[in-house]
Structures are given as structure tokens and as C-alpha cells.
């Protein structure tokens, strides 16, 4: 009788879904993150709008589970580098940025597969702005303002083993900035929306 009860208890425990994330867990994820701008801007010198290419870097995020279903996450990365172009002129500038993003998240389910959604705020800091084609000295003094905007996210974790997981996630980030420079000595400011989709595939560790 005791053996039968013990066997039943073990089988019941094995059949019960394991909670992939519990209140108090810290989760560290690292992988490839791609920023794909969905850009638009004011027309520049009657030529056209800015174009901004995509870039992939090492993405990092750190999450803390406030409860079994609610978490907070900070997105970080190595600096993204983008080339800026204009129609008919090709590449005219390069810049880098860091996009720290703080998210509040809700995780669905209670097993090893945990889809989630998130919303939060992003700060994008631009630096190392420089013209690569200054049109024989006509373009000078390039700078790009820091942006603060909202962000939304969907993602999914799949835990394997006791601590490891794989993750796929997508963000949409509202990035709006002013691109300031001088054109033939005259100050110009171009309102620019970057508004990228950010895609990340990563490996995670829970502790």
C-alpha cells in the first residue's frame, strides 16, 4: 500500500507542469539583437528623406520576476552602428547609439513554455555622429539628439534543464529625434523618426 502511494505521488509530481519562472527569480539573456529602422524624416535640402540601415549587435537583458506572472526587464546591448543615406547621394553619415529600455512584463501560463508581453520606456543615446560624405565641405557639425519614447514587446521563453532557457522576442520602439547640422554654414534641424523593430534570439540563465 505504501509503495503504491509513493509511486502515485512520484508520477503525479512528474506529470505536474514545472514553473519555468517563479517570484524572486533573476533571468539573464544574451544573444543576437537586430535593430531594423522604420524611418521617416523631413525632406533634407529638397533632396529627400534620410535612410537608415539595420544593424545587429550583442543583445543583453536582465529580468526580475516580481511574481510568478509579472516581471521587469532592462534591455541593453553593445552599441549599434548605422549608416545614414540620402536619395541620389548614397551614404552620407554614420552614427552609433545605445537603446536602454525598461519594460514591465506579464507572463502567460505556468509551464516550461512562457509567452509574455511587455510595455515600457526607452532612452536612445546617439554618439560618434560624423559625415562620411560632406559634399566638399558643405555638411558640417553633425549631432543627433537623445530620444525618450514608449516601447512594446512580445516574447517567449522555453526552459530546458533546471536553469537554462531559449528566448525569442520582438520590440517596437518609438524613437524620435532632431538631426542637427550645418549646410553651407547655415544651421539645419531635421525632425526624424527612427521607430525600429528590434528582433532578438537569445540564450538565458535563471538564478
UniProtKB/TrEMBL annotation:
Pfam families: OmpW. GO terms for cellular component: cell outer membrane. Residues 1-20 form the signal peptide. It is found in: Cell outer membrane. The keyword Signal applies. GO terms for biological process: transmembrane transport. Keywords: Cell outer membrane, Membrane, Signal, Transmembrane, Transmembrane beta strand. Its main location: membrane. The keyword Iron-sulfur does not apply. It comes from the Bacteria. PANTHER family: OUTER MEMBRANE PROTEIN W, PTHR36920. Belongs to the OmpW/AlkL family. NCBIfam families: PRK10959.1 (NF008202). This is Outer membrane protein W. It comes from Ferrimonas marina. The lineage of its organism: Bacteria, Pseudomonadati, Pseudomonadota, Gammaproteobacteria, Alteromonadales.
